[in-house]
TrEMBL record:
Native organism taxonomy: Bacteria, Pseudomonadati, Pseudomonadota, Alphaproteobacteria, Hyphomicrobiales
Family annotation (Pfam families): GDP_Man_Dehyd (PF16363)
Organism this protein belongs to: Mesorhizobium retamae
Descriptive protein name: dTDP-glucose 4,6-dehydratase
InterPro entries: dTDP_Gluc_deHydtase (IPR005888), NAD(P)-bd_dom (IPR016040), NAD(P)-bd_dom_sf (IPR036291)
Superkingdom in the source lineage: Bacteria
Keyword Lyase in annotation: yes
Enzyme class (EC, first level): lyase
Length: 343
């Protein structure tokens, strides 16, 4: 069997997609990155690979079938890693339709284009469509006890997670109905460099150094499991290479932390790094009205990925978080560009 070498990545100009493109290029793959370049994207994330001969970029919207199909036909991928999505829960609460458009309709158009291409190529047995999703599709857990497994029934809470759940069902349906070789991944919260400034960790770092309030939802007790983005993209490569068709794989960092503890860890790290004239960065914490429908706790069991794919997270959370804080401090121009895009 021929191992995949030519990879079509969607959403490669975003946070996780760009980490994936950087990894795949470093690993010797040929990569075509297809991205609409929404506010969440930043081509600067790809500065280290953009001139590499094995890397190419196409600007397109995944809801548009024709340009998508022509990318499939001209690039001739051995595998697709589909990450393009609207990804911010708060935005999904204030404007849900774009989430349905990109995440549900866009994924369906992607699957359809992949199927057409795969049929035209004689249904190559080694072709894979990796659909990248979130653990938020499972809903939430009580503060004490329990973890999501791949058999946990879907029970999404937010328009974002509902749209991702719908897209996961579409991916599974294309596998069952048309035989498209789909594998799904469901990952917990990612952190690391190049994450859009609107997400919890970069938002807190950015606001802290600019002397602004650090808005924490409710009492900050909601628990998230954190995985370093580089551990996630290594998992995605393994899903592509070793994942069983029609199966799904959970990925988590075994690093459950209450949001308020994450913010305090960031502040502590900043206190050690920077000279705030008086007091601690933690003095800037402000509790704000809770997010509507806020999920209490997420935690995933990644034993299937560990056992079947030989995957495990390599980075310890507090250490990775410290490095992440340092990265944002050292990349203030990137932060400004990210902030400008938010308007
Ligand atoms: P992101 O918002 O940083 O990046 C999304 C990228 O998709 C952007 O470059 C954007 O331009 C592109 N995009 C959006 N709509 C598009 C469209 N219609 N056509 C083509 N491109 C489009 O997101 P992220 O955090 O990197 O997440 C990537 C994927 O991973 C998403 O599918 C998300 O649901 C999933 N995921 C994210 C996390 C997380 O913690 N960030 C965890 C698990 C799963």
């Amino acid at each position: 069997e021929r191992a995949p070498r030519r990879i079509l990545v969607t959403g490669g100009a975003g946070f996780i997609g760009s980490a994936l493109c950087r990894r795949l290029i470093a690993e010797g793959y040929t990569v075509c990155n297809a991205d609409k370049l929404t506010y969440a994207s930043n081509l600067a994330n790809l500065a280290s690979v953009e001139t590499h001969p094995a890397y190419s970029f196409v600007e397109l919207d995944i809801v548009d079938n024709r340009p998508l199909l022509s990318v499939f036909r001209s690039f001739q991928p051995d595998a697709v890693l589909h990450l393009a999505a609207e990804s911010h829960v708060d935005r999904s609460i204030s404007n849900a339709p774009i989430f349905v458009q990109t995440n549900v309709v866009g994924t369906t158009v992607m699957l359809d284009a992949a199927l057409t291409y795969w049929n035209e190529n004689g249904r190559t047995p080694t072709f894979r469509f990796v659909h990248v999703s979130t653990d938020e599709v499972y809903g939430d857990l009580p503060l004490e006890g329990g973890r999501f497994t791949e058999d946990t029934p879907y029970n999404p809470s937010s328009p974002y997670s509902a749209s991702k759940a719908a897209s996961d069902f579409m991916a599974a349906a294309w596998c069952r109905t048309y035989g498209l070789p789909v594998v799904i991944s469901n990952c917990s919260n990612n952190y690391g460099p190049y994450q859009n400034i609107e997400k919890l960790i970069p938002l807190m770092i950015d606001k802290a150094v600019r002397g602004e309030q650090l808005p924490v939802y409710g009492k900050g007790l909601n628990v998230r499991d954190w995985l370093h983005v580089d551990d996630h993209v290594e998992g995605l490569e393994r899903v592509m290479l070793f994942g069983q068709i029609g199966s799904r794989y959970n990925f988590g960092g075994d690093s459950e932390r209450a949001n308020i503890d994450v913010v305090h860890t960031i502040c502590k790290h900043l206190d050690e790094k920077r000279t705030k004239p008086k007091g601690s960065y933690a003095d800037q914490i402000a509790y704000v009205t809770d997010r509507l429908g806020h999920d209490l706790r997420y935690a995933v069991d990644s034993s299937r990925a560990r056992e079947e794919l030989g995957w495990r997270p390599l980075r310890q959370f507090e250490e990775g978080l410290g490095e992440t804080v340092d990265w944002y401090l050292a990349n203030q121009e990137w932060c400004e560009a990210s902030r400008r895009k938010l308007g």
